[in-house]
Every structure is written in structure tokens, then in C-alpha cells.
Amino acid sequence: MKEALLYKKLADKIVICNLCAHYCKINQGKFGFCKVRENIEGILYTHAYGKVIASQADPIEKKPLYHFLPGSSSFSIATIGCNFRCAFCQNWEISQKSFQDGNILGGGEFTPEEIIKEAEVNQCLSISYTYTEPTIFFEYALDTAKLAKARGLRNVFVTNGYMSKECLELIHPYLDAANVDLKFFKDSSYKKICSSSLQPVLDSIKLMHKLGIWVEVTTLVVPGENDSPKELEDIACFLANLDRNIPWHLSRFHPDYKFTEHEVTPEVTLKQAEEIGRKSGLNYVYVGNVFGWPDNSHCPGCKKVVIRREGFNVVEYALKKNKCSYCDSVIPGIFAK
Fold it and tell me: Fewer CB atoms near the end CB (10 Å): N or C, the chain?
């Protein structure tokens, strides 16, 4: 175990955790909502440090990030645990595991130095903190991100966006990009399905953008839950009002975890969502998890394809630095030389 960052000691060995938007008040001998951070004799500890449950080199497009080092590989890591309880979680086998419930090992020991070495061996340009919520293994991610930055590697959070302002301000000098899940635009849905709330996620997206972190947003379109034209338009307008160049990824839902009775997202719903995104002013709207659908990036100026993809592979690249090779329009993002 390692002493946690971002907490405050109170009387009677009680602590308040300031890592995420739950702001848990934790009595001695108890865990926070994430079931990863434990109060032992008035000191808050993280059980997740160095305990990797999943690691591999992934295409950066799998995160998904389409305007951040496209065509590159990202070394991806996760520990067990999460600060959400999403009933449709696609990685529930590891995200809903808990140190509190007796998963003391929680994965193999993996030092930050070893992560950097693996990334370099696999010719990755970045480290992605993903699969589960990186906020809950923040101390581990922060130490790794500092080393990565010193070695010329970029850092990526794939996150639910439920971290505190203090957390983001601490990590932001080392965090280059984030894909944030914006699951709903109704607070009631966040409370019912994820045991959380909407506003902290919106605040994180806005703060990341302000801090200069490259942001892309994903919405898993779940039939009967967030697929109404009104809710999709609300999400799209929020993003467009912040920055029309934020890429919005619409992901097809497949039944999983506690949502096995829900249907797969119909293609017509995804097509409608894509049209709503564009009509709301977003320049880059992508649809994922649908076999055979093109996921190409088009220049908003001349409308030509500047990045052509087949699955997670980039098969055509028509950018000069960050400009369209055909008309010299700027394509927002972070691109390799």
C-alpha cells in the first residue's frame, strides 16, 4: 500500500478524500466508494499502487482517440476498481472488483519504470490509463506519467470524468489527452445507473479543455436510456458550445453486465445521432462498434478524407503536420511528425 494523495485529516481519525467528485468522508478502518482507498488509523492509503490487472499495447484509435497521434500504439494499463457502478459496464469483470471485498492482490506487480520499458519495447508513443477508471489509481498513474513525460512519451486518460478539480490540476502538466465518457445528459440517469451525477463530468470536460488537454468524448448509445433525439442534441450542443472541434464518438451498445435484456443499438439510431451531432455544429462525429461503417476523418474545409481507417488501422494519411494536404485547412489535434 501507499499513502494516498489529495485527502484531508479530520478529528477522530476520520478523513475526507478529495480525489474524485464523491468527496468521501471515510471513518477509520473503512474504504471510500471506490473500494480502493482505505483509512487506516487516520491515514488514507491506496491499495491499487503498482497492481496491474491488465496491460497491453493498443492502437490509439481503440481508446478511442482519432485526433491524437493517429496510427500509433499506446501502452495501456489498468488496476481493478472504479468510482462508478455502471449497470452496462463493458469491463465489469475488472472494474467492479474490489480490494474491500478481498481482492488483496488485485493484479501483478508492475513498477512505473517497468511500464515505461514495456512501452518503449512495443514502440508505443504514449501510455494510456484505461479499461477501468484511472482516477482511482491516481498516485500510480501520476508517478508513471511523470516518468513517461521525461522519456518523451505522451499520457492519456480514458475516464468517466468524475475526478476533482484538484486531481486534474495536479495531473495536467503530464496529461496530454483524454477521452471522457459523457454517458447521459440527465442527472437522474447518472444517479440511477452509475451511482454518480452529471455536473462533475461536465465540469471536468470544461476544465480539461481550459488546461490544454486534448479532449475527445464518447457516448455509449443505449436503447431506451440515452437515445432520445433531445438528449443526444443536448450532449452535442454542450460540446459544440465548448468547442466545435471536439471529436464526439458515438458507440454502439451491446448487452452486458446488468443490461443483458437491452437490445443492441439499431443502426438507424446511430445514424440519427450522427446527424444530430453534425447539425448541432460539431465538425467531427464518429460512430464506433459497427462493422463496415467508415470511421474516416474529413477536412471541414474541402470535405476530403484526410485520415482513412479500416477498423483500428490508419490506411491513408493526408496531413502535413496538422494541416489538410489538399487545401491547407487546419485539422485540430495532436499529430506525429
Answer: C
Cα distance between the two ends of the chain: 40
Q: Give the separation between CA 335 and CA 323, rounded to whole angstroms.
A: 10
Q: What are the grid coordinates assigned to 141, written together?
A: 498513474
Cβ distance 129 to 156 under 8 Å?
yes
273: left (phi over 0), alpha (psi -120 to 50) or beta: alpha
Instruction: Count the neighbouring beta carbons within 10 Å of the beta carbon of residue 46.
Output: 26
H/E stretch holding 316? strand 313-317
- Domains of the chain are 2-46 (no CATH), 51-295 (3.20.20.70)
Round to whole Å and give the CA distance between 62 and 28: 40
| Angstrom distance (rounded) from CA 99 to CA 102 | 5
How far is residue 312's CA from residue 62's CA, in Å, rounded to a whole number?
A: 6
Instruction: Identify each DSSP E strand in 130-259 by its residue range.
Output: 154-159, 177-181, 214-221, 248-252
E strands in 10-153 = 15-17, 25-26, 37-40, 43-46, 51-52, 54-59, 73-78, 108-109, 126-129
Please give the Cα distance from 32 to 99 (Å, whole number). 11
pLDDT digits (tens, 9 = 90+) for 53-84: 999 999 999 999 999 999 999 999 999 999 99
Asked if 232 and 273 count as a contact pair (C-beta separation under 8 A), the reply is: yes
Judge contact between 81 and 107, C-beta under 8 A: no
Query: pLDDT (tens digit, 9 = 90+) per residue, 179-190?
Result: 999 999 999 999
